[in-house]
Design brief:
This protein is an alpha/beta fold and 178 residues long. Helix content is 48%, strand content 13%. The chain is built from seven helices and six strands. It is globular and about 40 Å long.
Length: 178
C-alpha cells in the first residue's frame, strides 16, 4: 500500500484537495509537519521517523499527507526563511536522498500546481494567513515546486484545480495506492 502526499506552493489548492481526498477515500491523516503561518514543527526528524517512515510491510493502510518535509522544507527553508537553519537531519543530503528513495517506492505525490497567476492571486487573498516571506517569494516558490515536480522519480500526478476533476484524480489514486 502506498501513502498519498499532496505537495505544492501556498495558494495551490492543497488543503482543499486534501480535505476532499480524506472525505472521498477515507484515508487517515497524520499530524502536519508544517503550517502556512508557523512553518515547520519543531523536530522534523522525529516527525519523519514516527509518522512518515515505516518498515516495509508494516503500513496497515495508506495515509494522506498535507505536505512532506523532505519535499517542502528544502524549498521553503531556502526561499522563504533564508538564513534560518534547516533542522538536522534535513540539512544532510544523504538523509534527504535516503528518505526520498523510500518515498519514491512507498508514496504517490500529487503536485497541486496551478499556474503562477492563480497561485499569486490566492496568496494575495490570504496574505494574513501566510508565513512571513511567502507573498514576496511566491514566484520563486512556485518555480521551485515546478522543478521538484519534474525531478521527482516516484509515482506522481499533477493537479490544477482549474483544469482537473477531483473525482477522476481520486479514482486514479485509489488504483495506485493498493
Amino acid at each position: 500500500m502506498k501513502d498519498v502526499i499532496v505537495e505544492g506552493p501556498d495558494g495551490g489548492g492543497k488543503t482543499s484537495l486534501v480535505r476532499f481526498l480524506h472525505e472521498t477515500l477515507g484515508l487517515p491523516m497524520p499530524s502536519r509537519s508544517s503550517t502556512s503561518t508557523g512553518g515547520p514543527i519543531p523536530n522534523l526528524a522525529d516527525w519523519i521517523k514516527d509518522q512518515a517512515i515505516w518498515p516495509k510491510g508494516s503500513i496497515p493502510h495508506s495515509r494522506l499527507y498535507d505536505r512532506h518535509p523532505i519535499i517542502s522544507e528544502p524549498i521553503y527553508g531556502r526561499l522563504v526563511r533564508p538564513g534560518s537553519q534547516v533542522q538536522a537531519p534535513l540539512d544532510d543530503e544523504r538523509y534527504q536522498r535516503d528518505v526520498r528513495a523510500y518515498l519514491y517506492e512507498h508514496a504517490v505525490v500529487v503536485w497541486a500546481l496551478p499556474d503562477l497567476a492563480t497561485v499569486h492571486a490566492n496568496v494575495l487573498d490570504s496574505r494574513a494567513d501566510q508565513m512571513p516571506g511567502v507573498t514576496a517569494n511566491i514566484g520563486r516558490v512556485h518555480q521551485a515546486y515546478m522543478t521538484a515536480y519534474f525531478r521527482w522519480r516516484g509515482i506522481k500526478r499533477q493537479y490544477d484545480y482549474n483544469r482537473h476533476d477531483k473525482d477522476i484524480l481520486a479514482k486514479d489514486l485509489l488504483g495506485l495506492i493498493r
